[in-house]
Design brief:
By secondary structure, the protein is mostly beta strands. The chain is built from one helix and five strands.
């Protein structure tokens, strides 16, 4: 199971839905349980959904 963080989204105003999101993958965890994140990648909304459906855990943060 992978852990992902979503830091921002880009909305499609015409369709009224998410067009893409910036997704970060958890790459480390310290002794206190704090996660470290990579720089992130822009992904289409359906690719983000596939990560979650595939068993990944996603957090939203800013």
């Amino acid at each position: 199971m992978s852990i992902y963080g979503i830091s921002r989204i880009k909305l499609d105003a015409v369709a009224g839905e998410v067009a893409e999101a910036k997704v970060h993958r958890a790459v480390s965890k310290d002794e206190a349980g704090t996660l470290g994140w990579d720089a992130g990648t822009s992904m289409a909304y359906h690719d983000v959904a596939n990560l979650i459906v595939g068993g990944g855990t996603a957090y939203s943060f800013s």
